[in-house]
Write a structure and sequence with these properties.
Radius of gyration: 31 Å
Structural class: alpha+beta
Distance between the termini: 107 Å
Oligomer: single chain
């Protein structure tokens, strides 16, 4: 009788679904949570990278060309013609004051145009590298987004920080040297003295 009961117990399948669900349900929850996080992370990361790159390019362009100013409200460049502004921009291009606020305004504006507004808080940092010869503008944007599902039981944080870093060059010394060499070659071709700038510029216009 004992052997028959044991065989019957082994063949009995009642409750198998409950046991399987006990093992599979946590795994399915974690897979679902990972898909939700990816659906939030990837578009936010791509949008943040694009906005940071645009902000870095704008700041670098303003420091490279003192005749233009970027209007954050219109998201377009404004060409200046008054010399006092240009003279002031020469000194302003050497400073970093206000760069972070400009970068933050540009990034927030571009992110506001998304169909789904990004959640969480935004932190912007803007700095200059190799300040004298080969100046680079580095914009770092970090957005901290809350995790929509509580996964603290598996030691998962409640917030995830997405970081995007973009770099734009203000002045390229290689390009500057190449342009000077081209001008020198043009001057030599026309037999002009390099010290005579007026004739040199006329030679460039003729060459164009």
């Amino acid at each position: 009788m004992g052997t028959k009961k044991l065989i019957k117990f082994i063949k009995d399948t009642n409750g198998d679904a409950v046991v399987e669900a006990t093992f599979l349900f946590p795994i399915m929850i974690m897979i679902f949570a990972a898909l939700v996080l990816l659906s939030i992370y990837l578009p936010t990361r791509a949008s943040l990278q694009r906005a940071a790159q645009h902000a870095a390019a704008v700041i670098a362009a303003e420091k490279s060309d003192t005749w233009i100013e970027f209007d954050e409200s219109a998201m377009d460049y404004d060409w200046k013609t008054d010399l006092p502004y240009v003279y002031a921009s020469v000194f302003r291009s050497l400073l970093t004051a206000g760069d972070e606020s400009k970068a933050e305004e540009i990034i927030r504006y571009m992110e506001s145009k998304r169909f789904i507004k990004p959640p969480g808080s935004l932190h912007i940092e803007c700095s200059s590298v190799n300040y004298i010869l080969y100046k680079e503008i580095v914009v770092t944007a970090a957005r901290t987004i809350p995790v929509p599902i509580d996964l603290t039981f598996i030691k998962f944080p409640r917030e995830v920080t997405i970081t995007a870093t973009a770099t734009a060059v203000v002045q390229n010394p290689d390009e500057f040297i190449r342009n000077v060499d081209i001008i020198a070659d043009i001057a030599a071709y026309f037999g002009l003295d390099v010290s005579k700038l007026g004739e040199l510029f006329n030679a460039v216009n003729i060459f164009k």
